[in-house]
Amino acid sequence: MHIATLAAQLDGQLNPPDLKLEITGVGTMEEATAEQITFLANPKYLAKLADCRAGAILVAPGLDAPHLKIPRIEVAHPYYAFARAIALFYPPPAPQPSIHPTAILGEGVQLGENVTIGAYVVVGDRARIGDHVVIHPHCAIYADAVIGAGSILHSHAAIREGVSLGERVIVQNGAVIGGDGFGFVPMPDGTFYKILQAGTVTLGDDVEIQALSAIDRATIGTTTIGPGTKVDNLVQVAHGCKIGNHTLLCGQVGLAGSTTVGNHVILAGQVGAAGHLTIGDRVQVGASSGITHSIPPDTQISGYPAIDHKLWLRVSAALKLLPDLIQRVRRLERG
Fold first, then answer.
1. 46 and 144, same structural domain?
2. CA neighbor of 41 nearest in space, from 85, 81, 87, 9
3. Which of 19, 35, 100, 322 is least surrounded by CB atoms within 10 angstroms?
4. Residue 4 gets which letter from DSSP?
5. What pLDDT, on a 0 to 100 scale, did the predictor assign at position 283?
6. pLDDT for 119-155, tens place per residue?
7. Domain limits at 161?
8. Is-catalytic flag, 138?
């Protein structure tokens, strides 16, 4: 692709404007070749440009880098432009609409237009599949499930009975949407009585659930994930949780039952939340933190139990001083 064409596609300004260069792909600053374009989103990585061999670079307008000799495309959001460039050069394969002969469709299944159903897919009775949905091999869609238009289910995804997916939802390999919540009644004889999980799960438009994550159905009512929210690999969302819009749950996050998470929240990897609490809008939680109580909006917390992030940094720095401090206190006590 000619670099001027690429600049136009990315809503950018080419500098120099009359550059003659063909771009064949994208790459990192460390690995991009003379035929590829890279990006710089954070000025702290300016030093890496000294060894960069890319043919061009995506940068923000007015970047203060007088030593930068690489041709540039100035864009409002370099990281976003780079993501768009990836899609331009490496578009994912588009399956041809078809139903594989080994797929099994139950009674009363409703199929939209241009649906693709791969080998050994099983679709339960009365399920509804929207237009342009792609279901890859070995997926299981239980009875009465709804898959919104433009959604993609990757191999071995399981969509349980009565679950509803919005439009353009992506479910990655091995994820389970609507499995039973972990509900048991302790009995006097030491056994556990299983509570029927009679609720369901609803995913909003543009939600993505990545590989091997589990979104459990509610005991009664609905487990909900709002539009635009992204759930990483190996995440557990327990029964009855309510997750807002455009929230990120990173790898190995675990939410106990009936946790409410607001909009634009970021839970970093391995965060755990006790049940029946509320995490307010725009909260950010550091990796491996444990949330034991409700968190107000616009808060940054870390640690276990999770406390104010800046306080946690001070506490963490002080921990390595404790052995010496203890020895000093003991010497003082002995007089």
1. no
2. 81
3. 322
4. H
5. 98
6. 999 999 999 999 999 999 999 999 999 999 999 999 9
7. 98-312
8. no
